[in-house]
Amino acid sequence: MKRILCINPWIHDFTAFDLWLKPLGLLSIASLLRRKGYDVSLLDCMDGHDPSMPLPKKSSGSRLLHEFGCGYYWTEIISKPPISQTVPRYWKRFGLPYETVKSRLQKFPTPDGIFLTTVMTYWYPGAKEMLDLCRQIWPGIPVILGGIYGTICPEHARKQGFDQVVSGTDPIQVSRQLEAILGNTLEVKNLADYFSIYPSFDLYPEVPYAVILTSLGCPFRCSYCISGSLYPHYFQREPRQVFSELRHDVEVLEVRDIAFYDDALLFQAERGFLPLLRLIREAAFPVRFHLPNSLHARYVTFEIAQLMKQGHFSTLRISLETVSQELQRMTGGKVGRKNFEQAIHNFLEAGFLPEEIEIYLLFGFPGARKEDYLESIDYVKNMGLKPRLSLYSPIPGTSDYQKLPWLDLTSDPLLHNKIVYLYHSGQNDLYEFLQKRCQG
Fold it and tell me: Among 71, 189, 349, 378, which residue carries the largest CB count within 10 Å?
């Protein structure tokens, strides 16, 4: 293989939103391939800033998010899969129109191999549709699947007809599998070497924002989260290496918004994020920073909050999940009220406004009661903050997943879909009620 086409396929779902959504792993693999002399092209069906992307049918929502490069996608209503027939919502294809994608693929030089990625397990229908389209245009060209779906549900993925399924998210493990497929070494010695090659954002026609990782994995083992299983060994990058990548994003890509993808950004901050914040303050980059994956309140010191304010961090989201002590204990003891309140105090003292801080509360996880949700929502609102309900998704490999024997989650990854699970578990009415409570 000398010519590789990297594809981020459509999302088939009830809902999707571009919240700094980029296929970071695929872009990093593209960079490794280019370093070895491969001719790499990219088709990102979810690139909301692609010149061929029609304007979305829905408004952009938050004005600030729109200014930051985020927004709704163009959608096409398509037939529902049988397993989601009872959900009273439209099933859609999000991203570039099908005919636009087909026409563009037909204009690409015939590749020697196609690398296809997935993120959520339940987004596999979009990958399968892309596989079928590629087979129609280029019969016999191998299509290799990677990403979260192929890692968590490898057997299901193999049954879809992909030529190879790369199972794993650890960059070294993935690199070794790709080397076997390519018959060539990618020369990735360790994680520090892997991160020394910047993701190939330059393959996009327009780059309104960039995303970055300062670490891989999470040292915590929350009952509802898969991160600890995907990356069993927490790895933290050297702050100056991260800073060099940020400088590249600002000076070469000329982005004005950068989002951090870390699952545990503040863990061991004195060795990682704190020195990076000091470098950001000194550089005075003309950019805004965003934290869509939320922060661990336990580790928010006043110095961190102050440096974030000085460094133009514009999107703050903090995970609380629940104020129930019993549920906190059951799910991993992530944060207590005292830790949370101190974190909020530090942010306010640093100059952030209450309306700039959103709080994630998890809805739908096993064991939670209506009273627990109401208490959590009222607690957040009484502090003058904005609660945001985050829908629970049952994920294989988590301990919460084992608590749902009434639902055969192994039959189809579409059952991992948060909206499908919401209706199959009979919690949709409660969710709508609580959403109004959050907004009221």
Answer: 71
